[in-house]
Amino acid sequence: MAAVNTTGPAPYIYACTRMRVRKAALLPREEYMRMLNMELPEITRFIEETRYKAEIDELASSFSGVDLMENALSWNLAKDYQKVLELVPGHLKHFTKAYLLKWDIRNVLTLLRAKIQGASVGKIKEIQIPAGSLNRTVLDRLDSEDSTDRILDGLKGHMLYGVFEREMSAAVESGSFARMENELYKAYYSILLKEAKSGVKGGAAFLKYVRLDIDTKNLETVFRVKGESDGEKIRELMIEGGTFTLDELVRFAGSDSLDEMIETIRKKLNTEAFDSAFEAVKEAKSSQGVEIGLIKAKLTEMDRISKLYPMSVAPVIAYLELKSYEVSNLRALARGKESNLPSESIEACMVV
Amino acid sequence: MAVETMTIEVAQASAVGFKAIGAGLAVGLAGMGTGLAQLGIGGAAVGATAENKEMFGLALLFTVIPETVVIFGLVVALLLLFT
After folding, report:
1. Domain A203-308, what architecture?
2. Confidence band (pLDDT; 50, 70, 90) for A104?
3. Quick one: average pLDDT of A89-115?
4. Which residue of B has its CA nearest to A22?
5. B1 pLDDT exceeds 90?
6. Which chain A residue's Cα is nearest to B35?
């Protein structure tokens, strides 16, 4: 049950302002462009001068090079998300907790995939980011389990336990977690929709975000599978609850006329934020280019929602999303530099 | 005759009383208005300062801006009481 607001609007104003200040402190585009011209040690030093200093200093004795940067980024992200969860009041905490469930999906899937491949506990711990409801202690306990059944037992009581239980044996047997991942994300979005429609004050802003996220994910899938005619197969990949119905999405994916499809989507979305992503599709850019275009469109639209609902969960989620993209940008930058990729290729992988 | 004298005295006393009530309302209501305005600004100011200490001066300045309203109320109260 959501907490009841007994303190007036001040704690909400306080928390939303903190999120705005944090959002403003994220790395701007110019800094990424500067970092693209630096070498890895320079980037690490540069990052050390920003909000990642504590983690870099803490881990410098255990890691070096790109591993130091990756671990510091993951630690910082997890710590930051947990701090945000601590400081947001009332229904904002309720919605933020639901939103952060996706990190549990990511962590458990990482753990299962790593276990199947025989990765060491230390390595699994390094790649997990305890930003959701499964904290470091719970994840450590799960990491040390040897069998998937024991891992499943450890997840008892989790909001997504039903899906884990239903899909686990088939996934372990086949060695592929793709279907399980799809089902988990479908369940995740249905939980978010349920929370947003539960009648808790502030649900409207959260519902707008959830719909936007579902639309972005569905459009990404539509553009990936376009031309595919197997309706049932496509239907299975789509998430219900967004602006478009499953029938519409299946029709879009099987449509022959790209222009017509994009025009229909544009009319229904009723926003200009997605225009550049649609241009990328029309220019037949790589799926990565389209994906990044869609993410940028989502972030632009989220920024608009957070201004429309300034004292809601929208500014909180806008910050959390931008922060996760900052971390993935820096990770791409570090990995790209380590692999001696040209700056253009690294830039193409970043959401800036 | 006695009744008329009493009435004037009562009227004079009432005028003083009403002035005092007016002065009280001027300060009280203006204070409540200021409080309401500072509720939002104060919350945001503390939030901004918690994230960035350098914001303290500016945040404090924004927080005290609604104080002008209560000063207007005080001026009106003083004018009522002493003129």
Report:
1. Up-down Bundle (1.20)
2. very high
3. 92
4. B51
5. no
6. A10
